Fold these 2 entries.
Entry 1:
Amino acid sequence: MSKRREFIKTIGALGIGATIPTLLTQSCANQVYNGTITLLQTTDVHCQIHPHDELFWENDKMVFRKTGGYAQIATAFDELRQQNPNTFIVDTGDMFQGSELAVKTTGKALIPILNSLDYNLYLPGNWEVVYGKWNMERLMYGLNAPKICANMFHDGGMGQCGDLIFAPYYVYKALGQKIGFLGYTDPLVPVRQSPAYSKGIVYTKPEETLAEYIKILKEKEQCTYIIVLAHLGLSQQISLANNPDCQGIDYIFGGDTHERVRKPIQCKFSKVVEPGAFGSFIGKLNLQVNDNQIVSDSYELMEVSSDKYKPKTSIYHYINLLEKPFLQDINKIIGYSSVPLYRYFVIENTMDTLIVEALKWEIGTDIALSKGFRFCPPVCPIPVG
């Protein structure tokens, strides 16, 4: 613990951390800035590169609509960037696991797709380690934009923290403001998943370093606004936002539990949001700058509707090219269903029912259990699929 604190102090003294270079002159130092900074977030897309059936609960009924798809997300990003050049886009993890294409290519097929969308910053999620530490580093460092995570360390031996795998924070400059981004991934990864996935990585709790990094971002980097990029799950993110160590954090951009937070959750020390999963939504935070000060914020959960956002042609063709060698396996029909298959509810889901009934049928047990992962997007038969 003391060694980690000394390491953080050294980072602050040396000014280690990624920043966007800006040329400052005496004339622009006195410039008065007014306008809007737009921050966009996706998370937990889980390699769902095409539009898919998404489940909504409206007027006490289940409703399915086509949402998502990276070509559609690209169109939305382009439109939002055109509306406001001061736009910064982040993804907070689980980018390389969750589809046949990802399995066939050990996640590598997702790298050119993500790079073509011009994200500005990434945080690794809990599933980035699914192919092992070496592959996780290869995948993350294959992305053009910077990566941050303040609590993932190389194993220095006997489970002790070595060097950080990624930079701990990043500073974005726009309209005379410095916005600090600090990253944390769930320290329970070695417990909630096979420990073989994350072998060679040591995780620490965010509370161990959060307050000191806030001090570095405020005092040394002179940040006027601080956002934590978190892949902790909604309950841990809310707990963190109510922890005194979180004082000084304005927002937590969360991920992991696939929650659709439409109105920011105001906690004791910061606000918490999470923009669903599978590329069905984009979280949009607008910061209003008046006379060189951020005076207000407004948040919106944007639905990436297939009707509203048409696919960006170049990325649509690129995706088809990447999938072509594997189409036979990807499109192999293994069965049919006359009901929608989904995994969103806590008590009973048709996808889990299918899994446990299949286990009982194949193995002949009296009882079968499903762990209830929620990274499976719905499959909606029209009329039978």
Entry 2:
Amino acid sequence: MKAEELRYDENGLIPAIIQDIENNEVLMMAYMDKTAFELTLKTGRAHYWSRSRKKYWMKGESSGHTQEVKEIYFDCDKDTLLIKIKQNVAACHNGYRSCFYRKMDAKTGEVAIICKKIFDEKKVYE
């Protein structure tokens, strides 16, 4: 599979769902473009395109919480990636292992934090 065979959206992006290789926990969702995908393949470390900062970033470049790519899947339409990684420390910039640390009750709409914070993001991202 080559990067150009994937189906990118009108902005040249493809969503990437990031999952822990050991326990299948969904850690985050981010976007890649062709260059970020190729950097990921070349280095074995997850690289993304930041829509807000308009730049490439390697997960962990600031925090040291890198993602070692172990397996890459894509869906039947070739427009979504599922990347299984070895997460070093945490994926979430808010101090949690997973970005999905909040759960909404499907009936009441009440929200609860369901994970323990594992690092102080203010100290890591000063």
